[in-house]
Amino acid sequence: MFTLLLASLMSLASTPAPTPAWRTPFENDPAGNTTATYAECIAYYQKLAATYPAHLHLAEAGPTDAGRPLHEVVLSADGDTDPASTRRKNRRILFIQNGIHPGEPEGIDASMMLVRDLMQQKALLKLLDQVTIVLVPVYNIDGMLNRNSTTRVNQNGPAEYGFRGNARHLDLNRDYIKQESRNARSFAQLFQKWQPDVFVETHTSNGADYQYTMTLIATQHSKLAPALATYLQVQLLPALYKSMEQKKWPMTPYVDFEGRTPESGLQAFLESPRYSTGYAALFNTIGFMPETHMLKAYAPRVHSTYDFLKTVLETVDAQAPALAAARAQAAADMAAQTTFPLTWVLDDSQHETVQFMGYEGRTKPSDVSGQPRLYYDRAAPFTRPVKYFNTFKATTTASRPTAYLIPKAWVEVADILRRNGATLEPLTHEVTVPVETYYLEDFKTTAKPFEGHYVHSQVSLRTQPETATFHAGDLVVYMKEGAPIRYLMETLEPQATDSFFAWGFFDSVLQQKEHFSDYVFEDLAADLLRRDPALRERLEKLKAGNPAFAANGPAQLEWVYQNSAYHEPGHNRYPVARWLGTGRVGE
After folding, report:
1. Where is the Peptidase M14 domain (predicted)?
2. Which residues, 6 or more positions from 90, have their beta carbon under 8 angstroms from its beta carbon?
3. CA 469, CA 579: separation in Å to the nearest integer?
4. Of 94, 205, 423, 491, which is the most exposed, with the fewest CB atoms less than 10 Å away?
5. In order of start, what are the domains of the chain with their CATH numbers?
């Protein structure tokens, strides 16, 4: 603990002390165990905006479920708050978001301090010459207003903090695709407005005990376009780790593992698009989740977060040309890409090695149960090589269609697509065109609700070429250059981990609306089999190969129904069609 305290003091010593009028609530607490309330936080940014209008702009950026507005803070060298103008000036855009889990408030306090220092210290202000910062002071306003001292039972301070769930009891870090909360809808509009180069969302970890104050989740490089993956692995991450080491905050990848203790091997976090960094990656934005260690005191957690945010800013400034080139190449490659991965699995045949600073894991009798329990012995620190599994491989892929066709009835899906940068063109007249249609043959569904949904996975499809009729007002999404191609693939392809189908947006097609009375259909089924020898042959073949089916009369009758014209065509038929033609639909 002495090392951690020393690191905290050194970090403080490197930054000029603010005048009393500019101290944050965190800085005003001698114990360093206080986080700002929502009112204190917003009032602080209002004061900054009023004092430094040449460089800082504060605006409301849409509603939240709490009934309070989401706020957007823009920091720039010349006061420019226009994204298009910012791009023309060849500035990189760094988007920082705090308080998605308000019980993890380090980023809220650290950002207040960093923004103040950027405004008041000329050396830091120069970092805005090439980088514009867009900052959300508090994302989960709802949870921040729900202040308490008990819900973070594993965490060492602060004295009071907010709650993880928002006003609708949603975890907003699972809401980036389904966007049920007003918070997520406002965020999406802000994200699409700025289309940042780098996105940072601040967190506090859970799990094992170890020596680090700061751990880091980075966008999974396997999921990025090759140019971005190479830049992330070869330039950006090494620079962040080196700079944090120099600032006396050695970092490690986020501590996630399958064994008893971290020495069993660290596993990279696979952030699907329900999470912030997974969502950002769909748009070729590199994402980071700095995760401070819950068991460290609050003061070093805040100071390490401050230094991490400062380090990202410094590094983006220093590497601005390389970052710009990598994103431009990624956009060009995606425009030409024809096959996209939809699901992933850890590749345990590949690993890196990291020097991990941990504590020995031991067991002792539990005072509760008397059974052996795990504890980490802080009197036995170690540094040793640990395997780090940091590669994922795709398990499901899909080809890119020319366009998707979406019946106008699915207004909720259409609204989300528009909010996330997709252009939906309504048909002006009825068209009949050849399409690929999916039929949902099998899937698994969670036994309990997750974030208000029974989520589907392991989706099995039958793809069938059909000639389908679409009506005036039905929607076409062309997969052309400039469209959010990867976002569209991972939301509209049902097999994708966080597709709209996975989240239950199309569940109504899974329920059969019409059926038969067996005593009536018996005669119809017999007549069908007499008139269709091929159908009879298929039935007999099934019976011969499956004794249980052969002994089950109702099952056979159901099979005949399912394979007849009487079975409703919309049952298990995925309503979004794939069009593979050229030009424009219907022309």
Report:
1. 34-326
2. 130, 320, 324
3. 12
4. 423
5. 2-336 (3.40.630.10), 394-512+570-579 (no CATH), 518-562 (no CATH)
> Do the beta carbons of residue 488 and residue 477 sit within 8 Å?
yes
457: three-class secondary structure by DSSP: strand
Task: Tell me how far apart the 2 most distant CA atoms of the chain are, in Å.
Answer: 93
Tokens of 419: 């909010």
Q: Which two tokens stand for residue 496?
A: 């994708």
The answer to whether 227 touches 329, Cβ cutoff 8 Å, is: yes
**Cα–Cα dist 485/421, whole Å:** 10
Name the pTM for this structure. Answer: 0.94
Q: What is the pLDDT of residues 109-132, one digit of tens each?
A: 999 999 999 999 999 999 999 999
Q: Name the pLDDT band for 587 (thresholds 50, 70, 90).
A: confident
pLDDT digits (tens, 9 = 90+) for 188-231: 999 999 999 999 999 999 899 999 999 999 999 999 999 999 99
Q: Which residues of 284-321 are buried (b: 16+ CB within 10 A; e: fewer)?
A: bbbbbbbbbbbbbbbbbbbbbbbbbbbbbbbbbbbbbe
What confidence tens digit (pLDDT) does each residue in 2-19 have? 444 445 445 544 567 899
| CA geometry: angle 578, 581, 587, nearest 5 deg | 115
Rounded CA separation 258/380 (Å): 22
The token pair at 492 is 């509209």
- Taking a C-beta distance cutoff of 8 angstroms, is the pair 580, 436 a contact? yes
Q: b/e string for 16-28 if b means 16 or more Cβ within 10 A? A: eeeeeebebbbbe
Residue 522 neighbours by CB under 8 Å, 6+ apart? 557
How far is Cα 81 from Cα 453, in angstroms, rounded to an integer? 38
Q: Which uninterrupted H or E stretch holds 136? A: strand 131-136
483-537 confidence digits (pLDDT tens): 999 999 999 999 999 999 999 999 999 999 999 999 999 999 999 999 999 999 9
Short-list 300, 299, 298, 278, CA closest to 289: 278
Q: Which residues pair with residue 92 across a beta bridge?
A: 131
Token pair in block for residue 29: 């607490």
Of all residues in the chain, the percent with pLDDT exceeding 70 is: 97
Mean per-residue pLDDT for 301-315?
A: 98
- Strand 456-470's sheet: what is its strand order? 425-426, 475-478, 403-406, 577-579, 431-445, 456-470
Looking at the chain, the whole-number percentage of residues with pLDDT higher than 90 is: 96
Which residue has tokens 């999921």? 223
Burial class (CB in 10 A: 0-12, 13-18, 19+), 120: middle
Other beta carbons less than 10 A from residue 550's beta carbon: 15
Residue 381 has φ and ψ, to the nearest 5°, of -75, 155
Tokens found for residue 93: 């855009």
Q: Label the pairing between strands 92-97 and 131-136.
A: parallel
> Look-up: residue for tokens 């060849």?
90
DSSP-derived pairing of the beta strands 425-426 and 431-445: unpaired
Per the DSSP assignment, residues forming a β-bridge with 394 are 344
Query: From CA 327, how far away is CA 202, in angstroms rounded?
Result: 23
Cα(403)–Cα(436) distance, rounded to whole angstroms?
Answer: 11
